[in-house]
Amino acid sequence: KKIIIIILSILFFSCESVIDLDVFAHDSLLVVNGILDKDSIPSVYVTHSKEAFSDDKIESIKDASIVLYENGIELGPMICDLNPQPIQQTNALGLGRVHHVDSIYFYRYNSTPNPSSTYSIEVSHPDYKNVSATTNIPYDVALLNYEMFLDTTVSNIPFTGYYNTTFNLRFRDNPLEKNYYRIVLYNYWGDYDVTS
Question: What three-state secondary structure class fits 166?
Fold first, then answer.
């Protein structure tokens, strides 16, 4: 009988701890996103960081100054394309997914990169600290073979109606380099051409 009273007391009078977090003041920083690819012109978009618990929407910065360099030699400024590009965003909401389209503004330089060259950008804006980034363009990787398997049965993920597709890719990687690879897939959703 005493054990039952103790268990019931624990269940009904549980302790609750309140933890105060010391959240430091946030100095917003420039955030530069882009991918350099030998088959397309260099393009980046610029936003800014936000506080950890902020619900503010992240918006493109359209008045930054960006200078592009190849092998340490200045190529010139990257120009902001004032025609926004729609991108699809998918957010998980419960068991379903919510799709919406945002617009981003790209800065571009009208020349394709050269394999084996090193590229740098310097980004400045009067409201933020300057940032820079450096990367290089590797030589092509030969694709040995690929296979695609399309499962025409509907996915078992609730409320999606998506199909499952499996890709097998084989290519030779240089074991002496630390390489990263990107695979671009195209999907068509409604009226939007969506890159995943």
Answer: strand
Residue 53 region, left (φ>0) first, then alpha (ψ -120 to 50), else beta? alpha
Of 113, 34, 126, 130, the residue nearest 81 (C-alpha)? 34
Global model pTM greater than 0.70: no
| Residues 98-129 pLDDT 10s | 555 677 899 999 999 988 899 999 999 999 99
Q: Hunting for tokens 């790209």 — which residue is that?
A: 106
Q: Which of 66, 79, 81, 179 is nearest to 133 (CA)?
A: 66
d(CA 194, CA 101): 10
Q: How far apart are CA 48 and CA 128, in angstroms?
A: 9
Q: Are 144 and 171 in contact (CB under 8 A)?
A: yes
Long-range residue pairs from 138-143, CB within 8 A, at least 24 positions apart, any chain: 138/177, 138/179, 139/115, 140/38, 140/115, 141/171, 141/172, 141/173, 141/181, 142/171, 142/172, 143/169, 143/170, 143/171
Q: What is the mean pLDDT of the chain?
A: 78
